[in-house]
Amino acid sequence: MGTFITISVDAKDKHLVEHGFKIMKDIDESLSSYKKSAVIYRLNQDKKVKLDSYSYQALKQSKELYKKSDGYFDITVGSITKDLYRFGEQERVPSSQELSDAKVSFRGIHFNKDKAYLDRGIKLDLGGMGKGFGVDKVAAYFRANNIKARISASGDIRCLDICSIDVKNPFSDDKLLSFKTSKKDLGITTSGNYNRYVNSTENNHLINPKLKRPQTKFVSITLIGSISSSFLDAYATASSVMPPEKAYEFLDSLELAYIVLQSDGEMKISSNIHEYTDSLIMNDAVKK
What angle do CA 59, 80, 38 make, to 5 degrees? Predict the structure, then answer.
Protein backbone atom coordinates (compact mmCIF):
# COMPACT_ATOMS: atom_id res chain seq x y z
CA MET A 1 0.00 0.00 0.00
CA GLY A 2 3.02 2.25 -0.02
CA THR A 3 2.49 3.34 3.58
CA PHE A 4 3.40 2.43 7.16
CA ILE A 5 0.96 0.18 9.01
CA THR A 6 0.78 0.19 12.80
CA ILE A 7 -1.32 -2.01 15.07
CA SER A 8 -1.51 -1.29 18.80
CA VAL A 9 -3.03 -3.72 21.32
CA ASP A 10 -2.65 -4.53 25.01
CA ALA A 11 0.45 -6.57 25.87
CA LYS A 12 -1.63 -9.67 26.60
CA ASP A 13 -2.96 -9.64 23.03
CA LYS A 14 0.29 -9.02 21.15
CA HIS A 15 0.36 -12.59 19.79
CA LEU A 16 -2.56 -11.65 17.51
CA VAL A 17 -0.80 -8.70 15.87
CA GLU A 18 1.12 -10.81 13.36
CA HIS A 19 -2.09 -12.08 11.81
CA GLY A 20 -3.36 -8.51 11.56
CA PHE A 21 -0.32 -7.60 9.46
CA LYS A 22 -0.87 -10.71 7.34
CA ILE A 23 -4.40 -9.58 6.50
CA MET A 24 -3.08 -6.20 5.40
CA LYS A 25 -0.36 -7.86 3.30
CA ASP A 26 -2.90 -10.12 1.60
CA ILE A 27 -5.04 -7.10 0.73
CA ASP A 28 -2.03 -5.29 -0.68
CA GLU A 29 -1.32 -8.34 -2.84
CA SER A 30 -4.83 -7.98 -4.21
CA LEU A 31 -5.42 -4.22 -4.55
CA SER A 32 -1.98 -2.79 -5.28
CA SER A 33 -1.46 -1.02 -8.61
CA TYR A 34 2.33 -1.19 -8.08
CA LYS A 35 3.02 -4.86 -7.27
CA LYS A 36 3.25 -6.92 -10.45
CA SER A 37 1.68 -9.97 -8.79
CA ALA A 38 -1.36 -8.05 -7.50
CA VAL A 39 -4.80 -8.57 -9.03
CA ILE A 40 -5.41 -4.87 -9.76
CA TYR A 41 -1.93 -4.41 -11.26
CA ARG A 42 -2.56 -7.33 -13.62
CA LEU A 43 -6.01 -5.98 -14.49
CA ASN A 44 -4.46 -2.64 -15.42
CA GLN A 45 -1.82 -4.32 -17.56
CA ASP A 46 -3.80 -7.10 -19.25
CA LYS A 47 -7.25 -5.44 -19.21
CA LYS A 48 -8.75 -8.69 -17.88
CA VAL A 49 -8.15 -10.74 -14.77
CA LYS A 50 -9.63 -13.36 -12.48
CA LEU A 51 -10.76 -11.68 -9.27
CA ASP A 52 -10.16 -12.82 -5.73
CA SER A 53 -12.51 -12.02 -2.84
CA TYR A 54 -10.77 -8.78 -1.84
CA SER A 55 -10.58 -7.32 -5.35
CA TYR A 56 -14.23 -8.16 -6.03
CA GLN A 57 -15.36 -6.58 -2.76
CA ALA A 58 -13.26 -3.48 -3.42
CA LEU A 59 -14.63 -3.05 -6.95
CA LYS A 60 -18.17 -3.56 -5.70
CA GLN A 61 -17.68 -0.94 -2.98
CA SER A 62 -16.07 1.43 -5.47
CA LYS A 63 -19.12 1.19 -7.71
CA GLU A 64 -21.41 1.98 -4.78
CA LEU A 65 -19.19 4.89 -3.71
CA TYR A 66 -19.13 6.25 -7.26
CA LYS A 67 -22.92 6.47 -7.17
CA LYS A 68 -23.14 7.87 -3.63
CA SER A 69 -20.61 10.62 -4.43
CA ASP A 70 -22.26 11.68 -7.69
CA GLY A 71 -19.25 10.41 -9.60
CA TYR A 72 -16.60 12.34 -7.65
CA PHE A 73 -15.15 9.11 -6.28
CA ASP A 74 -13.93 7.42 -9.43
CA ILE A 75 -11.16 4.80 -9.41
CA THR A 76 -10.67 5.22 -13.18
CA VAL A 77 -8.58 8.35 -12.49
CA GLY A 78 -5.74 5.82 -12.69
CA SER A 79 -5.35 6.88 -16.32
CA ILE A 80 -4.16 10.21 -14.87
CA THR A 81 -2.48 9.23 -11.59
CA LYS A 82 -0.76 6.14 -13.01
CA ASP A 83 -0.17 6.91 -16.69
CA LEU A 84 0.32 10.69 -16.70
CA TYR A 85 1.60 11.92 -13.34
CA ARG A 86 3.03 8.47 -12.52
CA PHE A 87 2.86 9.12 -8.76
CA GLY A 88 5.30 6.96 -6.83
CA GLU A 89 7.21 6.00 -9.98
CA GLN A 90 8.88 8.15 -12.67
CA GLU A 91 6.91 11.24 -11.75
CA ARG A 92 6.22 13.97 -14.28
CA VAL A 93 3.84 16.87 -14.95
CA PRO A 94 1.57 16.11 -17.91
CA SER A 95 0.48 18.70 -20.42
CA SER A 96 -3.00 20.19 -20.37
CA GLN A 97 -3.78 18.35 -23.58
CA GLU A 98 -2.70 15.01 -22.12
CA LEU A 99 -5.02 15.55 -19.16
CA SER A 100 -7.93 16.49 -21.40
CA ASP A 101 -7.37 13.40 -23.57
CA ALA A 102 -7.19 10.98 -20.61
CA LYS A 103 -10.01 8.44 -20.47
CA VAL A 104 -11.86 8.57 -17.14
CA SER A 105 -15.11 6.61 -17.08
CA PHE A 106 -16.47 4.17 -14.53
CA ARG A 107 -18.52 2.66 -17.34
CA GLY A 108 -15.24 1.30 -18.66
CA ILE A 109 -15.08 -1.24 -15.79
CA HIS A 110 -16.91 -4.56 -16.23
CA PHE A 111 -16.88 -7.20 -13.51
CA ASN A 112 -18.70 -9.94 -11.68
CA LYS A 113 -17.58 -11.94 -8.63
CA ASP A 114 -15.22 -14.06 -10.71
CA LYS A 115 -13.58 -11.79 -13.29
CA ALA A 116 -13.13 -8.23 -14.51
CA TYR A 117 -12.10 -6.51 -17.68
CA LEU A 118 -11.40 -2.90 -18.66
CA ASP A 119 -12.11 -0.92 -21.80
CA ARG A 120 -9.14 0.43 -23.73
CA GLY A 121 -7.57 3.45 -22.03
CA ILE A 122 -9.05 2.69 -18.61
CA LYS A 123 -6.71 2.23 -15.67
CA LEU A 124 -7.64 1.80 -12.00
CA ASP A 125 -6.24 3.44 -8.88
CA LEU A 126 -7.80 2.23 -5.61
CA GLY A 127 -5.64 4.54 -3.49
CA GLY A 128 -8.71 6.56 -2.51
CA MET A 129 -10.23 3.69 -0.54
CA GLY A 130 -7.68 0.85 -0.40
CA LYS A 131 -6.09 1.79 2.93
CA GLY A 132 -9.49 2.20 4.56
CA PHE A 133 -10.55 -1.15 3.09
CA GLY A 134 -7.49 -2.81 4.64
CA VAL A 135 -8.10 -1.16 8.00
CA ASP A 136 -11.68 -2.46 7.96
CA LYS A 137 -10.58 -6.06 7.40
CA VAL A 138 -7.96 -5.93 10.15
CA ALA A 139 -10.43 -4.24 12.51
CA ALA A 140 -12.99 -6.99 11.81
CA TYR A 141 -10.43 -9.60 12.87
CA PHE A 142 -9.69 -7.88 16.18
CA ARG A 143 -13.35 -7.08 16.75
CA ALA A 144 -14.22 -10.77 16.35
CA ASN A 145 -11.60 -11.61 18.98
CA ASN A 146 -12.91 -8.89 21.32
CA ILE A 147 -9.57 -7.07 21.22
CA LYS A 148 -9.22 -3.34 21.84
CA ALA A 149 -6.96 -2.46 18.95
CA ARG A 150 -5.89 0.69 17.14
CA ILE A 151 -5.09 0.15 13.47
CA SER A 152 -3.40 2.86 11.43
CA ALA A 153 -2.53 3.01 7.74
CA SER A 154 -1.10 6.48 7.27
CA GLY A 155 -4.14 8.82 7.34
CA ASP A 156 -6.65 6.03 8.01
CA ILE A 157 -7.16 5.04 11.65
CA ARG A 158 -9.63 2.75 13.40
CA CYS A 159 -9.92 2.93 17.19
CA LEU A 160 -11.83 -0.02 18.62
CA ASP A 161 -11.52 1.63 22.04
CA ILE A 162 -11.19 5.29 23.07
CA CYS A 163 -7.98 6.81 21.73
CA SER A 164 -6.13 10.11 21.32
CA ILE A 165 -5.64 11.60 17.86
CA ASP A 166 -3.33 14.31 16.54
CA VAL A 167 -4.07 15.93 13.18
CA LYS A 168 -0.98 17.25 11.42
CA ASN A 169 -0.69 20.89 10.39
CA PRO A 170 0.19 20.78 6.68
CA PHE A 171 1.88 24.18 6.90
CA SER A 172 4.32 23.34 9.71
CA ASP A 173 5.62 20.57 11.98
CA ASP A 174 3.02 21.48 14.61
CA LYS A 175 -0.28 19.80 15.31
CA LEU A 176 -3.32 21.34 13.65
CA LEU A 177 -5.47 20.01 16.48
CA SER A 178 -5.84 17.06 18.81
CA PHE A 179 -8.73 15.25 20.42
CA LYS A 180 -9.92 12.09 22.14
CA THR A 181 -12.56 9.96 20.54
CA SER A 182 -15.79 10.00 22.56
CA LYS A 183 -17.08 6.64 21.29
CA LYS A 184 -15.59 3.22 20.78
CA ASP A 185 -15.06 1.84 17.27
CA LEU A 186 -14.62 5.12 15.42
CA GLY A 187 -12.78 5.68 12.17
CA ILE A 188 -10.66 8.75 11.51
CA THR A 189 -9.52 9.52 7.97
CA THR A 190 -7.49 12.43 6.60
CA SER A 191 -7.06 13.21 2.92
CA GLY A 192 -4.72 16.01 1.86
CA ASN A 193 -2.87 17.44 -1.11
CA TYR A 194 0.37 18.07 0.77
CA ASN A 195 1.88 14.57 0.88
CA ARG A 196 1.87 13.43 -2.73
CA TYR A 197 2.49 15.89 -5.55
CA VAL A 198 4.91 16.67 -8.38
CA ASN A 199 6.89 19.93 -8.07
CA SER A 200 4.06 21.78 -6.28
CA THR A 201 0.73 21.01 -4.59
CA GLU A 202 -0.99 22.30 -7.73
CA ASN A 203 0.04 18.94 -9.21
CA ASN A 204 -1.28 16.75 -6.39
CA HIS A 205 -2.72 13.24 -6.50
CA LEU A 206 -6.33 14.22 -5.70
CA ILE A 207 -7.87 14.33 -9.16
CA ASN A 208 -11.30 15.74 -9.95
CA PRO A 209 -12.58 13.03 -12.34
CA LYS A 210 -15.01 15.41 -14.03
CA LEU A 211 -12.41 18.08 -14.81
CA LYS A 212 -9.46 15.66 -15.05
CA ARG A 213 -7.38 18.07 -12.99
CA PRO A 214 -5.93 18.08 -9.43
CA GLN A 215 -8.01 19.86 -6.82
CA THR A 216 -6.69 23.09 -5.27
CA LYS A 217 -9.47 24.31 -2.94
CA PHE A 218 -8.71 22.13 0.10
CA VAL A 219 -5.44 21.37 1.89
CA SER A 220 -6.83 18.60 4.09
CA ILE A 221 -10.13 17.01 5.04
CA THR A 222 -10.44 14.91 8.21
CA LEU A 223 -13.56 12.80 8.71
CA ILE A 224 -14.63 11.06 11.94
CA GLY A 225 -17.44 8.53 12.12
CA SER A 226 -18.74 5.08 12.95
CA ILE A 227 -19.20 4.05 9.31
CA SER A 228 -16.63 1.81 7.67
CA SER A 229 -13.12 3.14 7.16
CA SER A 230 -13.25 2.38 3.43
CA PHE A 231 -16.29 4.65 3.10
CA LEU A 232 -14.68 7.35 5.25
CA ASP A 233 -11.55 7.10 3.09
CA ALA A 234 -13.55 7.39 -0.14
CA TYR A 235 -15.76 10.20 1.15
CA ALA A 236 -12.67 12.20 2.15
CA THR A 237 -11.23 11.64 -1.34
CA ALA A 238 -14.49 12.55 -3.09
CA SER A 239 -15.21 15.69 -1.05
CA SER A 240 -11.62 16.84 -1.55
CA VAL A 241 -12.18 17.15 -5.31
CA MET A 242 -15.68 18.63 -5.23
CA PRO A 243 -16.40 22.35 -5.58
CA PRO A 244 -16.46 23.75 -2.02
CA GLU A 245 -20.21 24.40 -1.82
CA LYS A 246 -21.00 20.89 -3.04
CA ALA A 247 -18.36 19.37 -0.74
CA TYR A 248 -19.91 20.89 2.39
CA GLU A 249 -23.42 19.96 1.26
CA PHE A 250 -22.23 16.40 0.68
CA LEU A 251 -20.42 16.12 4.02
CA ASP A 252 -23.37 17.60 5.94
CA SER A 253 -25.61 14.89 4.46
CA LEU A 254 -23.49 12.09 5.97
CA GLU A 255 -23.42 10.64 9.48
CA LEU A 256 -19.95 11.88 10.39
CA ALA A 257 -18.04 14.90 11.63
CA TYR A 258 -15.44 16.83 9.65
CA ILE A 259 -12.49 19.15 10.05
CA VAL A 260 -11.61 20.94 6.82
CA LEU A 261 -8.57 23.10 6.15
CA GLN A 262 -9.10 25.20 3.06
CA SER A 263 -6.36 26.46 0.78
CA ASP A 264 -6.97 30.02 2.03
CA GLY A 265 -6.01 28.87 5.54
CA GLU A 266 -9.55 28.90 6.94
CA MET A 267 -10.51 25.90 9.05
CA LYS A 268 -14.11 24.71 9.14
CA ILE A 269 -15.39 22.24 11.73
CA SER A 270 -18.79 20.57 11.58
CA SER A 271 -21.33 21.53 14.23
CA ASN A 272 -21.62 17.90 15.41
CA ILE A 273 -17.90 17.47 16.16
CA HIS A 274 -18.53 16.96 19.89
CA GLU A 275 -20.70 13.90 19.17
CA TYR A 276 -17.47 12.15 18.18
CA THR A 277 -14.70 13.90 20.12
CA ASP A 278 -13.75 15.00 23.62
CA SER A 279 -11.07 17.46 24.70
CA LEU A 280 -10.73 19.06 21.26
CA ILE A 281 -7.68 21.33 21.30
CA MET A 282 -6.98 23.60 18.33
CA ASN A 283 -3.77 25.38 17.46
CA ASP A 284 -3.94 29.13 18.04
CA ALA A 285 -3.19 29.86 14.40
CA VAL A 286 -2.86 28.09 11.11
CA LYS A 287 0.04 29.51 9.16
CA LYS A 288 1.20 28.76 5.67
Answer: 45
